Each structure stands twice: as structure tokens, then as C-alpha cells.
């Protein structure tokens, strides 16, 4: 057993010596190869330097072609810019505008509501209805971006815009505004209790231009509208139903009522748009 282990040890030492010897030989061969490659590269670099020096001397004597190189350099960027300008800035908008005018011209022109040949609003933008015969929409921090001449003259006209004040729930200004809206609504709708007022009638939308309210907000105003318009409850409920939009694809969003369209139908029933 001892002799066996001794022989194994000798063989291991022999293999180790051979391995070390081979590594040393490979190392020196690699060094020689690298030196040879370096010499070749050095000669190539020297040759290239001579050629560059020759060309530089020739250019300095002949004036060179700097302007030619400059124009060649900007030719492609200029052409790309020109093509993108024509395609993205002219052709693309014209094509989309043409397609939209053919396929859905009403939406492309702002979904305007036309009565007797006159635009009275857009189905996409709410309005502030102050007449007691009409349904009320949501509060708007920008007054639905509508102002009268006196507002503009007094400096209250903020210009075209949308948005909300983003008050915190504890902000005194928000508390004051909500309480004023509650008082005004209860005064106009005496049969409704404070706790029955839907939230969206007291909260402004993010844009301040939302033309919709919830079906619940429309329903709580029916009794007051019956009294102010003289129309029957069934008639008003039918008008609301006809202007109620369901969920998108039956899944997304909530049911909404377009206040402008409801009030337009009420005005028609009252004969306010009859031609003279």
C-alpha cells in the first residue's frame, strides 16, 4: 500500500513538472509573438504617418477641400430634416384632417351643438346654467371657461384655460365653497335633504369643463324642474334617459348624463328655440 502511494506521488510530481515546463515554453512563445506583432504594427503606423503627412502637405499647398467636406457633411442631415418636415409637419396633419372630416366631421369640428343654424355650445364642454328652468351641472373652478364682458373689463377674466384649484379637504376656501353650493342647492330643491345630495354636484372636475353629471344627480333635480318648467315628471325623466350615456363597451367608466343636451331638450319642450 505504501509503495502504491509512493508511485502515485511520483507520478503526480512528474505531471506537475511537465505542466510547469509547458507553461514556461508557452509563455516565451507568446512573448516572441507579441514582440513580432508590435514590430509589424510599428512599421504600419510609421507608414500611415508618412501618408497622412504627405496628404496634409498636399492639402495645405492646394487649399484643401474643407468647404466640400462641410457640404457633404450637412447634406444628409438637411435632407432628412426636410423630408421629416414635409411628412410630419404637412402631409401627416393634412391626411388625418381629411380623413377625420370625411369619417366623423362632427367630432372633428368640436362636437358643436347647432340650433337654428347657430352654435350654442359643445357636447364636450359644460356650461353654467343660472335659469331655474334648467338642470345644474358640476361646480367649475374656471367657470367652464366662459366670461361676460364685465368680467373681462374688471380683470376677472383669466383667459382660455381649464383646471381646478386642488384645495386640500381641510382648506377653508373649499369648505366655504362647498357649503355655499349646498345652501344654494337646498334652496332650489327644498324637497331634497342635505345627505341626499350626490357628491359630484358638490365637487369640481379636474378640468373644470366636465359636461356630465351622474344619473343620481339628475334624478334629484327632477322635482324642482317639474315645478319651474311645468313639464311632467315622466317627460323630464324621459329627457334624462334619452341623454344618458352608458359605460364604454359596457364595462369602462360610469353612466353619465349630458347636462347641455338635457337642457336643450327642455328648452325645445318649452318652445324657447322656435323661429320667429
TrEMBL record:
Keyword tags: ATP-binding, Cell membrane, Ion transport, Membrane, Nucleotide-binding, Potassium, Potassium transport, Transmembrane, Transmembrane helix, Transport
Similarity annotation: Belongs to the KdpC family.
Protein name (database record): Potassium-transporting ATPase KdpC subunit
Subunit organization: The system is composed of three essential subunits: KdpA, KdpB and KdpC.
Ion transport among keywords: yes
Segments traversing the membrane: 6-22, 77-96
UniProt KW Ion transport keyword: yes
Top-rank taxon, per record: Bacteria
Membrane topology: Single-pass membrane protein
Cellular localization per UniProt: Cell membrane
Gene: kdpC
InterPro entries: KdpC (IPR003820)
Cellular-component GO terms for this entry: plasma membrane
Main location: membrane
Single GO molecular function: ATP binding
The protein's role, per its UniProt record: Part of the high-affinity ATP-driven potassium transport (or Kdp) system, which catalyzes the hydrolysis of ATP coupled with the electrogenic transport of potassium into the cytoplasm. This subunit acts as a catalytic chaperone that increases the ATP-binding affinity of the ATP-hydrolyzing subunit KdpB by the formation of a transient KdpB/KdpC/ATP ternary complex.
